[in-house]
Amino acid sequence: MDDLKEWHVVELLKTTTDFFTTKDVDEPRISSELLLGHVLSLSRLQLYLHHDRPVYQEELDRFRTLCRQRLDGRPVQYIIGEQYFYGLRFTVDERVLIPRPETELLVEYAVTSLGIPDRGGPAEARVLDIGTGSGCIAVTMAKLCPAFKVTAVDCSPDALSVARENAARHGVESQVTFVLADMFDELFAARLRENRFDLIVSNPPYIPRTEWEKLPREVRQYEPETALTTPEGIECYKAIAALAPSLLVPGGMLCLELHADGAAVVSELMVFHGFTGITVSKDYSGFDRIISGISG
Fold this sequence. Notes:
Blueprint: E1 7-8, H1 9-22, H2 28-40, H3 44-49, E2 54-55, H4 57-71, H5 76-80, E3 82-85, E4 88-91, H6 101-114, E5 125-130, H7 136-144, E6 148-154, H8 157-169, E7 176-180, H9 188-192, E8 197-202, E9 207-208, H10 217-222, E10 229-230, H11 235-247, E11 248-257, H12 263-272, E12 276-282, E13 288-294
Parallel strand pairs: 5-6, 5-8, 6-7, 8-11, 9-10
Antiparallel strand pairs: 1-2, 3-4, 11-13, 12-13
Helix pairs in contact: 1-2, 2-4, 6-7
């Protein structure tokens, strides 16, 4: 970018998008828009509404710095420090997994299945989110359903710090209780059992460690591996399926996000632990993504 040239929003976006394309940056246009929008405090739509706005030198310098990070493979969400999830803005950084669109389906399915209070659902409900990470599931459910009480659990103090920040950001601190605990700890259930739950929801690590090197470079270099992988990819499902019956009220629901080819194995685990009415739902790409069942 020429320092002597006067840049305007639209031409800077085009030049950056073309440059990112030549460097094989993933989603070059969206990356350009999000980075420039962050620098100028404008939404992607506003960038085009103000397409002839000049970009001043200080702004250009900041934009270049962010672009260099993107060229190094750092995800846009970590660069700008946020990601939209279910229409809400969540703080994210390298301490937590970046929320994915597929996980929005988990929230939608869980809330719809449980029933929203103003649509004939329960006046109150207790929800347990295991492996909350950024808190996107717990906070979104609390925001959607003000009568819900959500317990958000994670084994990472750093992740819980981010989740608490997001709860405060969306004004649901009074609805969400955060607990530092590991689902593989033998005392896990004992710490939570005093309050039985109507719903347990989780997007657990489900990628086998053998698949780690096949993931995109920006995932491997920047996202927390422990939030994505386990040795075999099935360990968390085994733990949750075994714990859930003692934590759910009779007739309570367990709702999990799946690895694309994990439905059969997880279904068998849930049936083994007494769950009935097993239902599998697909994602936008046609892969099995959400599984649910009812406790006995």
